[in-house]
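@channel anyone free to eyeball this complex?
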Amino acid sequence: MKKMIQHGLAIVDSPYDDDGKKRTLVNKLLLGLTPSQYLLQAFRNPFNWILAAIFAVGIPILIGRFFFGLAWATSGSNDYPWGLFLGFGLFAMVPLSSSGFQLGTACEIFGRHDLEPIERLALLNGLLGYFFAVMYLLADLGQPWRLPYPMVVSFGPAAVLFLVAWHVATYLSVQVAEVSTAFFEWIGFPAGKRAVRKITLGLTVSGIILSTLHQGALGALFTYAPGKVHPLWYSSSFQWLHFFVSSLPGGLCMVITVSTIVAKTMAWRGDSRFHEKLDKVTVSLAKGACMGIATYITIKLIGIAHDNKWAYLDTGWGQWFMFEIIVGFMLPLTLMTYGVHTRKMAIVRMGAFMTVFGVVLNRVNTAMITFNWKLPHREIPPWREVIISLTIFATYIVVYRFILYRLPILYKWRRQEQEETVPEAVPAAALGRREASSVPVASYSSMTKLD
Amino acid sequence: MKRRNFLKACLIGGTTIALGKTNKGWASGSFEGYPEAMGVLVDTTRCIGCRSCEAACNKEQKLPEPDTSFDDPSVFQHDRRPTAKAYTVVNSYQKGQPSGPVYRKVQCNHCNEPACLTSCFVNAYTKTQEGAVIYNSKVCVGCRNCMIACPFNAPGYDYDSATNPVVKKCILCYDTRLKYGKPPACVEICPQEALTFGHRADLLKLAHERIRATPDRYVDHVYGEKEVGGTSWLYLAPVGFDKLGFDTTLSNDPIISNVKDFLGMVPMVLSIWPALFSGIHLLCKNQEHGEHGHDTDSNQEDTKP
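replying in thread with the prediction:
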């Protein structure tokens, strides 16, 4: 893509092409390229080959899971009923997706419009994280086709999972609505966007409520198993707070991580506003994340003090716990604080990566690694379970990239007025040539030669 | 705009009350078990490890053939747990001791306030008047939260089935026997009378009477009398229960009492957050005097084609 732009390809950033003609949906889907150009850039990207390899192995196994059952695909253990699909897929993806409600709140409730360049990325990160957490859940459920049962067939309102199900379902719809503004801009349906903008405040407030509750509820799920989760990862009074508070830096740092990756790998897609403001916005997010981490470490220690669990720190599990809290939380806190003060962006981003790692490790520890700590054996996920988890994650990346390439998330959709002035600046010769074929400036053959 | 906000607040408030009520109603109060609940007393000092209870259960519940026959003693080499193919198993403990091995039958303990029941989001479990914890496989989604929640690791899942996997566990022979006042198959077959079927209240009296009559034979504790709020299956043991694989760290409160803190918080968040954050929004807006409104560059409102 980078090369094509060097060769003069105009990126799709307005409803009209350079000649002032309205772009077709196919044109927008193909990023303004011809089908052959599109395929060429897809084949040229080495990352796509890695993805293709994952899908080639993973998709048959994923399909196999539904034909041969969970015993074939996963460890199928009675002692560890929740494996990688939930331990990683659900419990780790959801806290990393808390970005949507946080940036929504900052921009829409607190009026922090300086964060707007990243608001949509944060909303999309939230939506996709939740969506794929549900995909992992569908892979894990014994009878996934019964997923709507807690909504329509049979209610168990005393169960925490009942709240999780309802909140995730409602919140997913809220997030779809929030992200839909970008989609409406892209397909050119301003009435839809206007309608959604009108209820933004309501959507954002319900986002905060639902997020507080189900981020906490995921933690509260483990209060059903007081003897099974290791005491250092368990607190009957504060479990939901530990999960909720750690999800806050988790989500913010996930946005820093994703924005860092996309600013490097798809620099062409971000507009000047995104690239110029990115460092400033990253500093703001890192400040927020630092406060979140500091609070989290504090309440985690309070949790240990509250139940007087200090003795456990002197065990093997205690060392593992210290590793998690030092490498995953304390060190990133130090790094990010230092980075923010000295404006060293690389250090801030490094801290954010480590926080994401810390939050994922915390969830995997709670749900899998330290679960059933009293039992003699630990469960190692079998290879099919790992491959399926990897495949779903690869799908997540593909969908994420697909949307970022197209919808106005990292860039702003240019207005019609601006558009109208453009054709005048374009030389008439070039204009004529472009009308003949929809290939903008650089042709297929010239590019292959140059590469 | 004002009226819409008001209506929205009403709607949210209404949902809150509805949700809050249900949560509270289900989660609060402590349940001591049905007065007429039946139960089984297991006297581990009488058990000889013949595994005829396993065989009877297998036949009664129409479970698949076991890998090794029911008179194969090699199974005692490892501790087993109930699975989807065997609702009850007998384990052997204290093997090297001079007093000889102690056998312990493991199955669902049929709690008074079951963790599986309270953790189930489709309400698939029922604690019947007779004391059995039964399961409705027709609504089970297969989240396996009950297996996470069960403090005794009783429910098994038939992971092998691709189209209709369900949770399987001891149901106290509810469908075929208990409903008609008959004892479960395992109790009926036991040649040593190690298992006694009866009203839970009577069994407790009987257990304490046995301890009182022969204090040398038993440790002075009836496992299941108070653990996690009490269970329908009660155990007597000659040595400390921790030596027989019982979890002796369990609290006397039912599992749900751990979760009540969170459940009680839910309606509060639902009712306080909307006002709190809408209020903050109004405060922020006032400060700005509308100067830093939304940046309208990308807004299509202005650019209706």
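from a first look: Chain B has seven helices and nine strands.
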